[in-house]
């Protein structure tokens, strides 16, 4: 059995669950690397990453380099004598970092590689209407998400699952897979498999424009787009009613397949229902957030908001 000295690299809550799994299984994490503190909120107070907060609670040394090639940082990293790096939701590493440990550097990715390489694999799997996804551990190389695969685990995606729910499921699956991967490496039993060069589907970063709803798309495509961004960063649209135009974020929705003669984007509002006409039916909106307002269910919105005859989503 190899005596592991692990350096863990990560930033968001997703990574915290993985780090917690390693400590729960008594693996020796000698240091944690995370993003520098960033100013946030109205007071621009410095905000610590979720991983940093957790690492401090557990009395783990924390490194927060702005430059991963900085000589002082590299010397400090080397002083911990790591022989295995584990990366979860961090950033691209230079070879001088990922090549440092004797037993390599492996990454956890929330897709079944080689599909959905990139920054937002969970969002894009749902947006594209996939019925399955999973988690993959792989050794890092020079490119993004292309290294040799160690382990994979598959899971179905239900038709109603949002990105928030799938994120949490994959987070816990990923924690188990990382622990299993570390065990194989500790026992010198890890057998890797090369990835195919070609990828069919990518998972590039989500931008504001990516989140805008196209009401000319099919009901299925719009439905998947919304649940693939719910709750974060949320799909959005412009809402016109009378002489008002404001933006709205759409969260929980249902599909209603039904023939109609309305224009795409037309809003049909009753006392209890809020629907938007699309090509092959209606999108029933259960919850939404108008700009400057709090998130609310459609019925509560309609108690205080009157939709005019020309009301539509653009």
Describe this structure in words.
- This protein has 314 residues and is α+β, with helices and mostly antiparallel strands.
- The protein has helices at residues 13-24, 50-57, 71-79, 95-98, 121-127, 163-186, 208-211, 219-227, 298-304; strands spanning 6-10, 29-33, 38-40, 45-47, 62-63, 84-88, 105-109, 132-139, 149-156, 235-241, 244-250, 253-257, 267-269, 274-278, 281-285, 287-290, 296-297, 312-313.
- It folds into two domains: 6-186, 3-Layer(aba) Sandwich (Rossmann fold); 208-313, Formyl transferase, C-terminal domain (Methionyl-tRNA Fmet Formyltransferase, Chain A, domain 2).
- It contains nine helices and 18 strands.
- Strands 5-2-1-6-7-8-9 form a seven-stranded mixed beta sheet. A five-stranded antiparallel beta sheet has the order 17-16-11-10-18. Strands 12-15-14-13 form a four-stranded antiparallel beta sheet.
- A hairpin with a 4-residue loop joins strand 3 (38-40) and strand 4.
- The radius of gyration is 23 Å and the shape is elongated.
- The termini are far apart.
Keywords:
Rossmann fold; 5-stranded antiparallel beta sheet; 9 helices; single chain; elongated; Methionyl-tRNA Fmet Formyltransferase, Chain A, domain 2; 7-stranded mixed beta sheet; alpha+beta; 2 domains; 314 residues
């Amino acid at each position: 059995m190899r005596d592991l000295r692990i350096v863990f690299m990560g930033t968001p809550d997703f990574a915290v669950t993985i780090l917690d799994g390693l400590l729960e299984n008594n693996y020796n994490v000698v240091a944690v690397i995370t993003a520098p503190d960033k100013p946030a909120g109205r007071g621009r107070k410095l905000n610590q990453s979720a991983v940093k907060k957790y690492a401090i609670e557990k009395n783990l040394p924390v490194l927060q380099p702005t430059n991963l090639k900085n000589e002082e940082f590299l010397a400090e990293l080397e002083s911990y004598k790591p022989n295995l790096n584990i990366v979860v939701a961090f950033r691209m590493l230079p070879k001088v970092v990922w090549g440092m440990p004797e037993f390599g550097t492996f990454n956890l990715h929330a897709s079944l590689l080689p599909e959905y390489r990139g920054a937002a694999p969970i969002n894009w799997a749902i947006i594209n209407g996939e019925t399955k996804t999973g988690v993959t551990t792989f050794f890092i190389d020079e490119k993004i998400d292309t290294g040799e695969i160690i382990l994979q685990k598959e899971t179905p995606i239900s038709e109603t699952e949002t990105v928030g729910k799938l994120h949490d499921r994959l987070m816990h699956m990923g924690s188990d897979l990382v622990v299993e991967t570390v065990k194989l490496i500790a026992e010198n039993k890890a057998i890797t498999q090369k990835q195919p060069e070609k990828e069919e589907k990518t998972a590039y970063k989500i931008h504001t424009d990516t989140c805008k709803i196209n009401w000319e798309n099919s009901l299925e495509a719009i439905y998947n787009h919304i649940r693939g961004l719910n709750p974060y960063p949320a799909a959005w649209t412009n809402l016109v009613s009378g002489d008002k135009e404001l933006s709205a974020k759409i969260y929980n929705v249902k599909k209603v397949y039904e023939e109609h003669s309305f224009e795409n984007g037309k809003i049909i509002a009753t006392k209890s229902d809020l629907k938007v006409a699309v090509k092959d039916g209606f999108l029933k909106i259960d919850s939404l957030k108008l700009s400057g307002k709090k998130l609310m269910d459609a019925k509560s919105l309609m108690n205080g908001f009157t939709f005019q005859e020309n009301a539509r989503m653009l």
